[in-house]
Each structure stands twice: as C-alpha cells, then as structure tokens.
Design brief:
The complex is a heterodimer of chains A (187) and B (268). By secondary structure, chain A is mainly alpha-helical. Chain A contains eight helices and two strands, in the order ααααββαααα. Chain B folds into three domains: 56 residues, no CATH class; 78 residues, no CATH class; 114 residues, no CATH class. In chain B, α7 packs parallel to α11 and α10 runs antiparallel to α11. The longest helix of chain B has 29 residues. The chains are: A mainly alpha (187), B mainly alpha (268). Chains A and B meet through loops of A and α3 and α4 of B. Chain A: This is Small ribosomal subunit protein mS40.
Chain lengths: 187, 268
C-alpha cells in the first residue's frame, strides 16, 4: 500500500514538473510580442496619437466647415466636462491623456480628444480661445479642463506668440518722468 | 506722451587706468550702485576691464543691469522677436497693430535709443502712407506722430484727412505747430494767435451738430487761415482746396440751419 502511494506521489511530481516546463519559457519570442502589439494598435485607430499632424493642417482645420460643425463659434473647451467623484473637481487635472502614443483615458481633454488641434505659436485662432477676453489672462486648466501636459505646452506657445507679435495684448502703461528729458529747462 | 528726443551718444569715459590689475582675473567686473531712490538714468554703473581700466558702462549694459536690479513691468531682458525680425514686424504693420507696436516699443526701449526711433519712424511712415490716423488719434502716440510728420515736412496727408473730416480748428493748430517748428508759413503768427484762442475750447472729434455765434466767428477765421496755408505751403493744393470747399458748403448749411432754428424759436 505504502509502495503504491509512493509511486503515485512520484508520478504526480513528474507530471507537475513536465507541466511547468511547458508553461515557463526561458527565452523570449520578441517577434511574436511585437506582432501582438501591432494587432492591438490596429484595433483602435481613433486612439492612436503617434502620427504627427503639421500645424498648417491644424490651421486649415480651424477654418474648415468640419470644425464649424463640431464646435461652432464657441471655444473648444466649452462643451467639455471633467469626470470626477464627489461634488468638487480636484484642483489639478490629470497629468497626461496620452501614454505610449495611445489615449489612455476614457475622457481625454479637449485638445487630446481632437487630434487635429495642434498647439503651436502660429495657431493663433486656437490660442485665442484660451485667453480671457475680459482680463487678457491665460485661463486656468481647472476651467478649460486641459491635461497638465497640454496646458504647459499652451503656456509656452502663448508666450512665444506674444513675443513674436502674433498675438497682441494690453501692454503695461509706462509713465515718463519728463524732468529727466528737460535737463536745462524748467517745466 | 513719450518724449521725442535726440538719439543718445555713446558713453566713453575712462575713470582710471590701473595696469597693476592687468591679469588679476579672466573676467570683466561690473559694479552697480543699487542705492534706493536714485533714478535709473543717474545710477552709477562701472566696469573693470581685463587690462585694468575702470570705465563707465555703455547704454546697452546700463539698460541690462538696471533691468536686472530694478525690473520694469513689461520690459524683457531679451529684445522681443517682433522687433528684431523684420518679417514679423512687417506682418504687424500689415495687420495695422500700430498702437500695440508703439506701446510695446515704449516699454521695451528708452525714448533716446536708436532702435526706438527706428521702430517708431517706420510705424509713423506706415500710418501716414495708409492714412490710418484715426487708429492713433485718441492715444498717447498721436502727438509724437504729428511732430514726426511736421518735422519731416510730410504733414499734408494728415492735413487732408483733417479737412475731409471737417475739423478746421485742428487744421489751424497743425499750421501753427508747423510755423513754430519750421517758421515757413505765411502769416504764421496769425495762425499761432488763433491757435491760442482755439486750444481752451473743447476738442472736436467729428463735425459739430450745433454751433453758437462765437463758434461761427472762430471757424470763419480758421477757414481764412487754412486758405492762406493752402496757397502758400501746401503740396497737395487741389485736393486740399476741394476738401476745404466741401467743408465750407457743409458749414454754410449748418449756419443756415442754426440761424433758421433760432428764428423759428423766436430768439433772433
């Protein structure tokens, strides 16, 4: 009886080992995994953000009928609403909507969701939508819902546009001390 | 108004030469006196050169150091690209953003810098060429624009615009200013006396709707004065005369209307 039990135990061990050997691979088949990823990408082309779209295309898009139909006259962020738990949204928006070239969230920010909106200093029509018409300040990400990455890009682009005179703003008023210029005359 | 002044001269005065310090360090030393309450223009800023000479800094270094220690709101350490790149500057002119250009030039540059005078003169010429005086009319830059045009003997475009918009009083003031600067207007002293009379009256930006007898008196004098100017100095005589004739007819109608109204109300 004892011998029979021992033999069964041994047989079990052997079968477990053989199973292990078949499941564990000590070398990786890279070619196979790449092809698997490629298949995954092909599944959702709408979420693919690896393609770089030139600014000129974006500028033309902003003047097109398709854009008009999608957004109308309003800024691109007006109809965007953030997802959050509870009654108050967190002060900071998400770090980024895109990871490894693919949209990694179900509710990407207004710039990330439309791949033809490109942030660039030449794209003034887009940049204007993120500047308050009353104060001339750049709107906060809390209001527009942009992810932190795109918001930072926006700040850089607007600063560049101001520097190059593509966008105008109210320049601070400079007071002159005329007594410096009338050196030898009394005012 | 931004002051209109001559271009600054380079500062070049050596305070002392100390050859003993010749190879003391591999870098130049800059010293700034940041005492409170001293104007930027009067601040002492000196440099010790590698060969041991102690000299006052030139304007560009002074401006940079002043901006580092006492930053002016809106001024950048690096010149904005819109001023340095010709293409961007021209695009701004094309879009007629004159006020933005001039405001920004005011903040970025001192009025006696060469760059400031270059930028403003290009802008004024562009305004004059395209007859966009109204874009600058209610700003602090209209005075310098007028001065620039008169100084360079090209005020006739502005004169035409003023006559066409029917404000003779401004035309007389312009004539008086020309006489004050160049002294080449016939009976310019009469124009100056008239300008003295005009200046206390409220500023007109469009044709008046109602006038008093005193207004009529002043305006008829103004018309005579402008006529003389057109005869003696104008470079666009026929156009000016046409504009003045148009104004005269309009004005006559206005006079008739007001006198008629007065009569109808029984005041005359």
């Amino acid at each position: 009886m004892a011998l029979y039990r021992n033999i069964r135990f041994m047989l079990n061990r052997i079968t477990i080992l053989s199973d292990l050997r078949s499941s564990v691979r000590f070398c990786s088949d890279q070619a196979e995994s790449i092809s698997e990823e490629a298949e995954q990408k092909e599944v959702d082309p709408t979420k693919d953000r690896t393609k770089i779209i030139p600014v000129e295309t974006s500028i033309r898009y902003l003047q097109s009928k398709a854009y008009q139909q999608t957004y109308g006259e309003k800024p691109v962020w007006t109809l965007y609403r953030r997802n959050h738990k509870g009654g108050f949204a967190p002060r900071k928006t998400r770090r980024s909507c895109v990871r490894n070239g693919i949209i990694s969230t179900g509710n990407p920010c207004p710039i990330c969701r439309d791949e033809y909106l490109v942030i660039d200093h030449n794209n003034t029509k887009l940049l204007e939508q993120f500047i308050s018409e009353y104060t001339g300040n750049i709107l906060d990400a809390f209001k527009t819902g942009l992810c932190q990455k795109k918001h930072k890009e926006l700040l850089v682009a607007i600063e560049r546009a101001w520097d190059q005179g593509l966008l105008t703003y109210d320049v601070p008023f400079r007071e002159y001390d005329y007594s410096l210029y009338y050196k030898n005359q009394s005012l | 108004m931004p002051p209109v002044v001559k271009v600054q001269k380079p500062i070049d005065d050596v305070l002392s030469r100390d050859p003993a310090l010749m190879s003391y360090d591999s870098a130049k030393y800059l010293f700034t006196d940041i005492t409170f309450g001293v104007a930027n223009e009067h601040r002492i800023i000196v440099e010790r050169d590698l060969d041991g000479t102690l000299r006052s800094c030139d304007h560009d270094v002074r401006k940079r150091l002043n901006q580092v220690y006492f930053p002016m709101n809106g001024r950048k350490l690096k010149e904005p690209l819109m001023f340095t790149e010709q293409e961007k500057f021209n695009s701004l002119l094309e879009r007629q953003k004159y006020e933005f250009i001039l405001d920004r030039a005011c903040v970025q540059y001192e009025p006696d810098e060469a760059a400031y005078q270059r930028i403003t003169s290009i802008t004024y010429q562009h305004v004059d060429l395209n007859k966009n005086y109204n874009l600058l009319r209610s700003t602090r830059h209209f005075g310098p624009l007028t001065f620039y045009l008169i100084w360079h003997q090209s005020m006739d475009g502005l004169m035409l615009e003023i006559l066409q918009s029917g404000i003779v009083r401004d035309a007389v003031v312009l004539t008086a200013l020309r006489h004050a600067i160049h002294g080449d207007v016939e009976e310019g002293d009469a124009a100056r006396a008239l300008a003295e009379q005009i200046l206390p009256t409220p500023v007109q930006l469009r044709k008046p709707e109602s006038i008093t007898e005193l207004d009529i008196q002043i305006d008829s004098k103004c018309i005579q004065c402008v006529e003389k100017y057109i005869k003696s100095n104008s470079a666009m005589k026929s156009q000016h005369e046409l504009a003045l004739q148009g104004f005269r007819e309009d004005y006559q109608q206005l006079i008739d209307l007001t006198r008629g109204l007065k009569k109808a109300h029984g005041h005359a």
